[in-house]
Write a structure and sequence with these properties.
CATH class of chain B: Mainly Alpha
Number of domains of chain A: 2
Shape of chain B: globular
Number of domains of chain B: 1
Strand content of chain A: under 5%
CATH topology of chain B: Arc Repressor Mutant, subunit A
Largest interface: A-B, 21 and 18 residues
CATH superfamily of chain B: Winged helix-like DNA-binding domain superfamily/Winged helix DNA-binding domain
Structural class of chain B: alpha+beta
Number of helices of chain B: 5
Radius of gyration of chain A: 19 Å
Number of strands of chain B: 5
Structural class of chain A: mainly alpha
Helix content of chain B: 40-55%
Helix content of chain A: over 70%
Order of helices and strands of chain B: EHEHHEEHHE
Oligomer: heterodimer
Largest sheet of chain A: none
Strand order of the largest sheet of chain B: 2-4-3
Shape of chain A: flat
Number of helices of chain A: 6
Number of strands of chain A: 0
């Protein structure tokens, strides 16, 4: 079994483990199809697309749960809703950073040595996430201010962390 | 309940209409329609949630992992035939070709 196919199987098994109950059948369905895909790279692309589809399916369940929770708790005041929005923004931003590290690991597995290259590291875990944070903040600011604030806060903390790191080590 | 009839959804409906009674597999549908898994599965999920599609695990040979299979329900078949025939008469055909934006369809 080639490395890309191995990665694809690992990714889909991880998705299956993490998927909520209502998405588990779909996650298993995409994993089972993997055996029938010709070509290792085709298998990896199949797994990436499937993982994104399962994640979207699972997140729609979480969003519905959050909405119903918010509707039930009519006592939740505006400050509470804002805090929930900021929390969601921060969680999304942290999830993106987690994905960036995962991408770096995949790059390291597929192209050994590249993972430890400083420019690949800075690009994958700093430049690209920070650019996404800025774009998301600008796009969400008017309609979902608290979520945008959460994303911005996480981006600022990350940037501050890097600034402190650079100051201490260079 | 509204289902957005995107060009991709029409492709999937069309693929299911070929031997409509037969069970179909995800990868075979992907090859038949040219859709990537990230596009195909959300469509299958939406169709299944609206009970237009029934799903089942294949009872395979011992030692062989079962595959997930899909086929239309009676409602799904009616819906697909009406959608695709509407497409053939012009409106949805243009949608499938990307000439006009799709409208949500009430089902």
């Amino acid at each position: 079994m080639g490395t890309p196919r191995n990665l694809a199987a690992r990714l889909l098994r991880a998705v299956l483990r993490l998927a909520p109950e209502e998405s588990r059948d779909w996650a298993l369905a995409t994993l089972r199809e993997l055996d029938f895909i010709e070509g290792d790279w085709a298998a990896l692309f199949w797994a990436l697309g499937s993982a994104a589809a399962i994640l979207r399916h699972a997140s729609s369940g979480w969003r519905a749960w959050l909405r119903s929770k918010a509707n039930k708790e009519t006592g939740m005041n505006n400050a509470g809703k804002r805090a929930l929005g900021v929390g969601l923004g921060m969680l999304s931003a942290l999830a993106l950073v987690g994905c960036a590290f995962a991408v770096l690991r995949i790059i390291g597995t597929v192209f050994p040595g590249l993972e430890h290259s400083p420019w690949a590291y800075w690009l994958a875990v700093l430049a690209i996430p920070e650019a996404i944070f800025v774009a998301a903040t600008v796009m969400l600011w008017r309609k979902r201010g608290p979520v945008a604030a959460g994303i911005l806060a996480t981006g600022l903390v990350m940037a501050l962390h890097v600034a402190v790191h650079l100051t201490l080590h260079w | 309940m509204k289902l957005r009839l995107s060009p991709q959804t029409l492709l999937v409906l069309d693929a299911f209409l070929v031997q409509a009674e037969a069970w179909k597999y995800g990868y075979d549908l992907s090859r038949a329609t040219g859709l990537k898994s990230g596009t195909l599965y959300p469509i299958l999920m939406r169709l299944a949630e609206r009970e237009l599609l029934e799903t089942e695990w294949e009872a395979g040979e011992p030692g062989k992992p079962p595959r997930h299979m899909y086929r239309f329900t009676a409602d799904g078949l009616r819906f697909a035939r009406s959608s695709v025939s509407a497409g053939a008469s012009g409106g949805l055909g243009q949608v499938a070709l990307g000439l006009v934006p799709p409208d949500p369809v009430e089902i």
